[in-house]
Amino acid sequence: MSRLPGRKRSLSITAHDAIGCKLSLAQKGYITDSFVHHFVKDPMLSHRSPVVNRGYFTRVSSIEHILRCFLDADDSPKQILSLGAGFDTLYFRFRDLPTIGLWAEIDMPKLVAEKAKIIGHAPDLAGILEDAPYRAAGADITDSGALVAAMEQCGVDVGVPTLVLLECVTAYLEADQVRRLLAFLSGHLERAVVLGYDPMSRPEDRFGVVMVENLRRRGIMLPSLMAFPTCEARAELLRETGWTAAECIDKNRAYTSLISPSERARIERLEFLDEYEELRLLFAHYCFWWAEKRPLGQPDRSL
User: How far apart are CA 187 and CA 189, in angstroms?
Assistant: First the structure.
């Protein structure tokens, strides 16, 4: 197991940074999110550059697109199991979709407690969660026993179609922990889709080396970043750990294939951006990946 205190610090830093970036999107008009400000300690410090805003918009919109595809596939109740959810507001924005039977979030206990405290002090958030199918529990997701207990605490039904969301999570784990987690999920859940988003880089990639060093200086460690350096490697990892119909695309492809032309045209008018080569290079170092787990005899299909 990796050094847990170091991973806890990395997760805490990035949880606060990610929600600050999402507030920047809302402030600039990229997304509509009337809840995100509750989770930002100092909204005055949330401003991000046009490159960062474009990147986070692509991250948020692509994940939401795939989530909606899953939830809207048919009328049956479904579960969302968000591992490493941080301060994300996805449930509050998706709550009206009728196919959400359960929305469960599992993260480090300290982050779960901090999020619960913020919700408890915000009447609009607390009111939404009254009698809502939302549950949260604290656990180390690399400990399968603790993860099972947290899933049971949240009421996760392993037989109900479930989308497991791992948004910028596996890069913070050791490579063997990533393999064990994905294998556990494919073995434990009967009908599931796993969806993830992560940075990626080759050891000889100068851009990636600089990115890792910059993050390290901020106290953020990514131990498995270069263990799965390409989309092909990530898809193979999914197949090796019991998943089928595995796909992985980089952020450049996600921007053009998962976001509509009209939406791209709208957000490209929001801020002047001339660092297109930098943006393409940055986007080439992040990927979205997903795969399925089906009961025996169920026909193959993809998102």
Answer: 6
